[in-house]
């Protein structure tokens, strides 16, 4: 359990060691188990659940089978259009704008990309010890906790999954590991050789074809095997398993030659003799199809184990009857990477890294004790809802200071009581969901809000609002988001923009900033703040910044300090890279906003200050190494 300390104090203390609501009766199950099966970059149209216009080309028999025992949420959303912020949000229960983790690869000094005039705001690299994860919450309530697969929520020792509430962790890529050296997608297939790290299974699985009527073998996947191992080893106690697959993220490949051949036959395509990028549009990439079906196979292995294993804590029941399974993806489908065409989110617009429907609407199934079987619901659900819902389903309690800060809602009423709306603690139905992604060029850099039938965007580069009506009278209307009706519906645009602006303000959402060198003809550039003095007192570790008089006013200021893991003993002949990141710390501003001071923590190895003026220009001091 974490203590009530300031963010920085907890971080620095951790470095020194180096390394809800009222519950109702949910069922007669004693402490149900929970599994979150989290795919990577799996689109809403990449599974056989939500077929619109054209049926999904990829075979997902185990996902279809789970759907018969689950509720399929057709309006299920990820917290963000990219990986790291969605994972951090799911684990912490906090909106990406609240944690500040709004994109991948954070913890760096803000800078503008070569082709962009605006620079992204600073955002943290991952979760820190002051975040109270769902694993810590369940561990507090007697659960064994395990994480298998992709973490991507911080790479420092203090950010590791085992320092964030997980008793067990296995974080290799498994069968997703791409070819190395001279290997490529056409010569790196698994074999039956006992020395093959990805040795093909003796057991046979889908697909069943004329050539292989008994089914085909699958390569050994360490992610799947360690998930099964965790379940077997912890079935005597209630367990929580966060199974976060690396599939179907790039690189797009398969070690399963039989499965790849199956998809070539199904799609009517041939593999090239030379390994080149797949450029045929639509759902036509056999490598990607093989990855989707391999992901589905992994889910099937987990479900099969649950179905055949007795629950020692609930006599007469199998683990499948006493386990809640949540299946979803971290963001919408990634349609392309460079020239490679992976899949197709149509009819949804765009994909990963975009706040349009293709980037955030995801497949979502929830099954378990007392949940109706084979139902479909169109109620708005966000993965932020998982945390408070799991607490409710497991009758788990956490300190009020954590539960009151959660941004999702308990959806157990929808799951168990056939309610048609998600309600907050005051019984008020949910009205909207919102997203924040202040990155990239004009087509990506925006926030969005979904309210009923409507979806509104605010573009941070142009300042414009765009409005789409996705549904009308319960039926699909403009799901493709082709028609901007902001001018036709000024009242709706005004109402939703007001809501969105309030969210941005209440969450102190960080926005993109102007890079002075990219605005040389802007009259405001001449007035940007100028640092005339930058001193560091080694004894007190205090930094003092002095600005030139007569320039634009500062509206935001903070310092960035670099922290790192402690150096480890190195094996002879081997180098080990020390991992580090920048964290944000507050500064004290003088009365005239011309003087700024802060104290560099003793564990920090570098520091600098960031200043934002009233015209949204970002000014950065030099970054100094601490001697």
Automatic annotation (TrEMBL):
<comment type="similarity">
    <text>Belongs to the sulfatase family.</text>
</comment>
<dbReference type="InterPro" id="IPR000917">
    <property type="entry name" value="Sulfatase_N"/>
</dbReference>
<dbReference type="Pfam" id="PF00884">
    <property type="entry name" value="Sulfatase"/>
</dbReference>
<dbReference type="InterPro" id="IPR050738">
    <property type="entry name" value="Sulfatase"/>
</dbReference>
<keyword id="KW-0479">Metal-binding</keyword>
<keyword id="KW-0732">Signal</keyword>
<feature type="domain" description="Sulfatase N-terminal">
    <location>
        <begin position="32"/>
        <end position="395"/>
    </location>
</feature>
<keyword id="KW-0378">Hydrolase</keyword>
<keyword id="KW-0106">Calcium</keyword>
<dbReference type="GO" id="GO:0046872">
    <property type="term" value="F:metal ion binding"/>
</dbReference>
<dbReference type="InterPro" id="IPR024607">
    <property type="entry name" value="Sulfatase_CS"/>
</dbReference>
<dbReference type="InterPro" id="IPR017850">
    <property type="entry name" value="Alkaline_phosphatase_core_sf"/>
</dbReference>
<dbReference type="GO" id="GO:0004065">
    <property type="term" value="F:arylsulfatase activity"/>
</dbReference>
<protein>
    <submittedName>
        <fullName>Arylsulfatase A-like enzyme</fullName>
    </submittedName>
</protein>
